[in-house]
Amino acid sequence: DTGVSQDPRHKITKRGQNVTFRCDPISEHNRLYWYRQTLGQGPEFLTYFQNEAQLEKSRLLSDRFSAERPKGSFSTLEIQRTEQGDSAMYLCASSPRDRYYEQYFGPGTRLTVT
Amino acid sequence: AQKVTQAQTEISVVEKEDVTLDCVYETRDTTYYLFWYKQPPSGELVFLIRRNSFDEQNEISGRYSWNFQKSTSSFNFTITASQVVDSAVYFCALTPMDSSYKLIFGSGTRLLVRP
Fold it and tell me: Partner of B22 at 20 to 30 A CA spacing, among A18, A34, B60, B75?
């Protein structure tokens, strides 16, 4: 069990550019969650998948954000036309089928938009 | 509406002191889980404890203890004989036992333990 991994760990981009993050959950975990954490705040829910289906999206997820989990394994989160307000830590978590409340978090991707 | 409030933004103690981190929550759900997570400087969230709304028994794990009181909607966390390695940001979180189990976090309490 290698844990949840996220790539890249850090990303610096210029305003207006597109960025994509990847999350690899613990194998056989069928749920995958994305959260965003801004400086000095707790993580906030963005969206979650059960297998390949995206079941819920937060209002925080504007139309510039899109998430996918095409084969029910890894997931990607893309931000188009980044803005400075997108600067945050993006956290991914996965949970097993019979214990959805048990979320295991990855190390996060820290995005800085200049 | 669901909400978690951690009123203490930052706490500083000297090593070996006891410290209590407060957590107050709001929910209309009758069934829910409460959690505490630790976030060290590396950034990864580390799970500490989960309690469900049916069980108000307090819990002790080594130097850590948790006090859950439904009557006051509180789930406080005490570290006994604090150590420098306890320095981190601590988050309290809530999830209703619904279909999503999405976590609702408080804003965190930064604990600094000085040698």
Answer: A34
